[in-house]
Amino acid sequence: MNDEPTQLAFPAPGERLAPHHANAETLALLSRRRSTVALAMNEPGPSAEQVDQLIAIASRVPDHGKLAPWRFIVFQGEARTRFGQTLGQVFKAKNPDASDEQVAFEAGRFERAPLVIAVISSVTENHKIPEWEQVLSSGAACQNLLIAASAMGFGAQWLTEWYAFDADVNAELGLGPSERIAGYLYVGSAEDEPVERVRPAARVDHW
């Protein structure tokens, strides 16, 4: 885990950038990247400066039309507990036979990690840029967050779970009619080393 934020030099508009960044460490990270289960995360989480860096890096994704078709909601500290209470209430209302233990589990979901960032797909409707491309851009933001968190020395997991698709929960978050949850990114200090899973072979054709 990295206690000290790395000083990053984000480019200014109009600045000329290198066309590539040959870096063996980046290739090694990508070839061995593995999600850390949220339940295996502990304090400390990223600092405020690191959170800002994560979001800035998440925003550096392909964005056809410069629409920025995503936004972020950050949950840290007591905000995780407050939002968890909403999850528990919504779950109880829709599952009246649920036990107290089940409701408590749902209410504690955001306390599994010290930082949770909701990545929201925010589509500009009736635009020349296809909706599908805008949605894909928000998915790329999620992946950038995962990789950046790992490079900072934190474990991270991209989850949705039931509350990402629940209309009442999304209303509490203030999502608009053209917005959906692309993912909840859980970030924290890793407690255990994740084990590599079996991965399917890539399906590749050559035209």
Structure, described:
The chain has helices at 24-32, 48-58, 78-94, 100-107, 131-152, 167-172; strands at residues 41-42, 70-76, 115-122, 155-159, 179-190. The mean pLDDT is 94. It has a domain at 34-76 and 111-190: NADH Oxidase. The chain has 207 residues and is α+β, with helices and mostly antiparallel strands. The relative contact order is 0.21. Strands 1, 2, 3, 4 and 5 form a 5-stranded antiparallel sheet that branches. It is globular and about 55 Å long. The longest helix has 22 residues, at 131-152. Helix 2 (48-58) runs antiparallel to helix 5. 35% of the residues lie in helices and 16% in strands. It contains 6 helices and 5 strands; from the N terminus they run αβαβααβαβαβ.
Short description:
The chain is an alpha+beta fold and 207 residues long. It is 35% helix and 16% strand.
